[in-house]
Every structure is written in C-alpha cells, then in structure tokens.
Specification:
Elements lengths: L10 H19 L1 H19 L20 E2 L5 E2 L6 H18 L6 H8 L3 H4 L3 H25 L4 H27 L3 H24 L2
Helix pairs in contact: 1-7, 3-6, 3-8, 4-8, 6-7, 6-8, 7-8
Length: 211
C-alpha cells in the first residue's frame, strides 16, 4: 500500500508559505504609511471642521465630488474617487506590452509552452485570448487606480507598495491554491506569477504619480 508523501515535499507548499510570510512582512513594514496618513489627517483636520474638506482630505465644496457617491450603511456616504482615465488606459497597456516581451522566445515562451503543453502553432490561434487579456488589463488598471487613491499613494514608491500588496495578497496566493489542486508545475507558477508581479508594480507606480 502506497503512502502519500508529506505535504512539505511539495514545492507548492513552500511557495504558498513564502507568499504568506511575505505578505505578513509587508504588513509589518506598512506602519510607516499608516503614520504618514495619521499625520496628514491631523494637518487637514482644521479644514475638515470648516467643511472645506471631506474624509481623506478630498474637497467637498465642488458638486462634482458628489457624483458617483455610494450610500453606505448607517446613512453615511461612501465617497467615490477621481479616476484619471488616461492614466488607467496607459496602465492597462503595461500588461499587454510586458506580455509581448515576457512570453517572447527571447524570455519565457518556450518554458511556458512546455509547462502548459502548447506548441507555437497552438498559440497562433489564440486571438480570443488576446482580446480577453486586453479587457482584463483594463479592468485591473481601473480597480488598481481606485486602490491607489484609497491608499493615498502619490509617489512611485507608494504606488509600488500598493501593487506589491495586491500581487502578494491576491495574485500569488490564488495562483498557488489553483496550481496545487490543478497539478500545475512550479515553473509555470513562477513564470506567470513574475509576469503579474512586474505588471502590477509598474501599474501601481504609474497610477500613483499620474494624478
């Protein structure tokens, strides 16, 4: 009777473990951003009491700030964010441009095709995949723009941190779980995970500095 090997023998176990540890480390060092936000809140408190600023330092004197406001439980209003659509579109181009390089023969095209069992002929028929990738990139850029605004990120470094949190907290973890149950290879996880990581870091930086 065969015995199942211990879970620690699986590389996916260590990938998931390191992802969780990395996320905890990020949470530990993010205190500096919380202190910065608290300092800004103290500086803006007089203006907020005068009614010139809303929550988070957003101007409430303009009627445009009420457009898209979402009713919140308890009668309060969850204020919408200002979206720079040009920045969103430019950020959405990042995964497309990076993917053309990342999955090119010069980098990871061959090991990726081996990992998924595809051939070059199969990839020539993937027009639908490119269309889905374009729509997904635009949706990701839009959601990330909102997260960047909620976090108050305005510098390249702060944008990188937001992208890093999204990557470590949502992308790496869900990919690890799916990879374990689907029996996917570690090389595929590293190739795809690295692509998404670089994309989110660059996108976060663009959205933070391009107001």
């Amino acid at each position: 009777m065969s015995t199942r090997p211990p879970i620690t023998d699986s590389p996916w176990f260590w990938v998931l473990l390191f992802s969780v540890v990395g996320l905890m480390a990020l949470a530990a060092i993010s205190g500096q951003y919380g202190k910065r936000q608290a300092r800004l809140e103290r500086q803006l408190e007089p203006a907020r009491q005068d009614g010139r600023l809303g929550h988070g330092g957003k101007c409430t004197s303009s009627p445009l700030r009420t457009v898209g406001a979402v009713p919140h439980k308890g009668g309060a209003v969850l204020e919408d964010v200002d979206i720079n659509w040009i920045a969103v579109i430019v950020a959405a181009l990042v995964p497309m441009a990076l993917g053309a390089v990342w999955y090119s023969p010069a980098l990871f095209a061959r090991p990726w095709m081996r990992a998924v069992g595809k051939t070059q002929e199969d990839m020539s028929m993937a027009r639908r995949g490119y269309a889905v990738a374009a729509v997904a990139a635009l949706a990701m850029a839009y959601v990330l723009a909102r997260l960047v605004d909620y976090a108050g990120a305005t510098t390249i470094g702060e944008g990188l941190v937001v992208g890093l949190f999204v990557w470590a907290g949502f992308v790496l973890t869900t990919m690890a779980v799916n990879g374990i149950f689907a029996g996917r290879s570690l090389s595929l996880y590293l190739i795809d995970g690295g692509y998404h990581g670089v994309s989110l870091l660059v996108m976060g930086a663009i959205l933070a500095v391009w107001d």
